[in-house]
Amino acid sequence: MLAEELAARINTSYSELIRFEETRGFADYAFLNVAGDPAANLMQRSPLSAYPVDSGIPGLIGYFQVDTRGTLSTPLLPAPGAEATRFGIPLEELDQRQALTARIQQILSQNRLVHGGKGGLAERLSASGAGAGWDSKEQDEARHKEPAPHAGTEYPEDRDMAAETLAASPREQEVVGQVAFDRLNKSASAEQKKQKASSTLGRVEDLKLDQRYQLESSEAAPRTVMRKDQDPAAKRGARKEQSALPEQAMSSREKAGAAQAPARFRITTFESEIDPFEVSLLDSGHFVLFRKVWRDGQRYIQGLLIEQQPFLAGIIEPAFRDTALSRMSDLAVAYQGELFAAFSGQASRDYLARAAALSGALLYQARLSAPLGDLELFFSIKRLPAGPGAAVLTWLAAVLTIVLCGGFLLIYRLGAGQIELASKQQDFVSAVSHELKTPLTSIRMYGEMLREGWASEEKKKTYYDYIHDESERLSRLITNVLQLARMTRNELQVDLKPRTVAELIDGVRSKISSTVERAGFGLRLGCDDAARRAEIRVDVDYFSQIIINLVDNALKFARRAETKSIDIGCRLQSDDTLLFTVRDYGPGVAKDQMKKIFRLFYRPENELTRETIGTGIGLALVHQLALAMNGKVDVINREPGAEFRVAFPVVEAAQTVRR
Fold first, then answer.
1. d(Cα 271, Cα 148) in Å, to the nearest integer?
2. In this structure, are residues 244 and 35 in contact, taking their beta carbons and an 8 Å threshold?
3. What does the alpha-carbon distance between residue 534 and residue 498 come to, in Å, rounded to a whole number?
4. Which of 548, 583, 553 shows the shortest CA–CA distance to 568?
5. pTM of the entire predicted model
6. Cβ-proximal residues to 203 (8 Å cutoff; 6+ apart), any chain
7. Which residue among 144, 291, 319, 528 has its CA within the 20 to 30 Å range from the CA of 123?
8. What is the sign, positive or negative, of the torsion defined by CA atoms of 129, 130, 136, 137?
């Protein structure tokens, strides 16, 4: 389970940090440590004396120590009276160390843990007669440093501490300055917990989460992250160690007027008994991680002061963000039932201002191991995570969807193409029927008139010419249909032979001149001498059919043009190709139809409303025949009219390439 594994990982991270701090010796909380053999009298700075404070604990403010009289010290500063510059501390850094020490003093005094705050513990216990162990000078200093509490202000917990101190034995009264630490983790009532204003998110009771995904829904208490036999923190206990300290570093009554530290230190070796760390949340919202240490019958409190939000977010949030769980769930962190932090996997909801924003179902609830046993993790989820094979299934579904969509699109296009082809074939049959019926009817009519002798002598020639022209048009139509049939069956056979352009132009002239003249058009042929002498490999019949079809097309679409002329030209191009052009002076070709007009059966006009004759196969045959002879066809618009171009490679150029 992702949530359970993540909770265990978070617990391990916190446990490793605390376990590392527990390995620190008693002497580490002093500014100076003994290096090596005590007899060598070598001193070194404590690892905790570094500034800025260096620690893997997120949000750490600093380390501190409180002796039996409640006097605070930190490893940041040397013993009173010692010159900081002697230890290599610049004056600017010394000011910063003193400011940090003052901040630690202020936070602890605000929470009534050490002397120095308003209504401080020293003054209140002294007023109760519980100041045993303090000399008059220390009491005067405490009274001078700690302002009196506001009039009428009472602290029930302080009265309880004073009463406990008065009733304690002389040895127990030696730790009156640490009574507040003894009371930190004493069980408080639910009402007292609610009165703490450390959280703005609310309490756990405010969470309205569905319990459907809870594995053990009958359990009211959250599950611990590890079993006690697996949790290293469950085996925590007091330990003993041998320590050595220079007397100056352990003396608390060093005179303030001492000019400098002695040249040699008197080293004291002792045995300490160190309890495991405890964690508590202060009224100010800070976490305090502290332990009790016994040395020579006296007890010391050593600990760390930690900012709340960095401590929670520095470990929990990165671990949460690095998992797939963050994309589908929210994580809330509570301490003693109070919600202190909430993290959302959605970028737009990184900050959750209240408990009600955590919606969905409770996926997993767990409590961290000691000493963070009061910290609870709540995972809420709105949708279930994908299974291990979800990515494979997702990609497979995507591929299948693409294949199916592509298949449906292909089938649709094939079907649409077949429907369009069928429609065009029907139009072709209709056009062919019209093209055949009209000239046959005219030929029959004029033939009957000539047979019955109804035509005068001057009209007979006209009737004969009309019958001849219509017969040629029928012949061209039948030829085109036969060529179409061959193309459809892939039976088109091309006999390519070298022919001069002059020979080809003369052959075309004889076939189209009469047709152009009877249509009322003029014919202009223009080829320069170089072009006329060039040779191209073509099939003469197919070449003639190409030019005739282009001229026929020009006559049909330019019949209403102001300039009734058909221009046929040829010229050599720089790429060793010979270009034939057929131009009319009609309306031209629309830009969106320039590629379509070479399709089989395509006609730019509707079959029911078109004004021109034709079957829609002439230009398609031109395109296919040109390709069969290694040529290519194109069309451009001129002002006015359209110009069809057919290009063939010159024979000499082809031979040069082969050589």
1. 39
2. no
3. 10
4. 583
5. 0.52
6. 194, 334, 337, 338, 339, 355
7. 291
8. negative
Which residue, 557, 570, 586, is CA-closest to 499? Answer: 570
Q: What confidence tens digit (pLDDT) does each residue in 591-628 have?
A: 888 888 888 777 665 544 445 555 667 888 888 889 98
> What is the DSSP-derived secondary structure letter of residue 35?
-
277: DSSP letter: P
Other beta carbons less than 10 A from residue 411's beta carbon: 10
Amino acid present at 627: L
- CB distance 577 to 649 below 8 Å: yes
Give the three-class secondary structure for 12. Answer: helix
Angle between helix 618-628 and helix 457-488 axes, rounded to 10 deg:
60
DSSP 356: G
- For the beta carbon of residue 80, count every other beta carbon within 10 angstroms: 15
Dig out the tokens for 543 from the structure: 């070449």
Nearest Cα to Cα of residue 285 among 310, 318, 316:
310
Nearest alpha carbon to residue 553 among 591, 515, 607: 515
Is residue 348 within 8 A of residue 330, CB to CB? The reply is no
d(CA 106, CA 603): 95
β partners of residue 239: 274
Give me the mean pLDDT over the 237-255 stretch: 65
- Domains of the chain, residue spans: 2-113+184-325, 390-488, 497-658
pLDDT digits 0-9 by tens, 533-564: 999 999 888 898 899 889 988 988 888 888 89
Over the range 172-192, which residues count as b (16 or more CB within 10 Å of their CB) and which as e? ebbbbbbbbbebeeeeeeeee
Q: Are 480 and 428 in contact (CB under 8 A)?
A: no
Cα–Cα distance for residue pair 500/531, rounded to 1 Å: 9
C-beta separation of 597 from 589 below 8 A: yes
Rounded (5°) CA angle 649-650-653: 100
> For residue 522, what are the β-bridge partners?
565
CATH classification for the domain delimited by 497-658, as one of 3.30.1360.120, 3.40.50.620, 3.40.50.410, 3.30.565.10: 3.30.565.10
Give the residue among 226, 313, 289, 232 at the shortest CA–CA distance from 21.
Answer: 289
- Confidence bin at 168 (pLDDT 50/70/90): very low
CA distance 315 to 9: 10
569 contact partners, CB below 8 Å, separation of at least 6: 525, 526, 527, 580, 581, 583
**Which of 155-159, 351-355, 455-459, 504-508 ranks highest by mean pLDDT?**
504-508
Query: 3-class DSSP state for residue 655?
Result: helix
Q: With CA atoms as reference, report the closest residue to 652 among 470, 530, 550, 477.
A: 530
Contacts of 205 (CB under 8 A, 6+ apart): 337
Are 656 and 594 in contact by the 8 Å Cβ rule? The answer is no
Distance CA 638, CA 648 (A): 22
Cβ-in-10-Å burial (0-12, 13-18, 19+) of 653 comes to middle
Class of domain 390-488: mainly alpha
- Got the DSSP string for 538-593? E-HHHHHHHHHHHHHHHHHHTTT-SS-EEEEEEEE-TTSEEEEEEE--SS---GGG
- At 276, the pLDDT band (50, 70, 90 cuts) reads very high
CA distance 34 to 267: 8
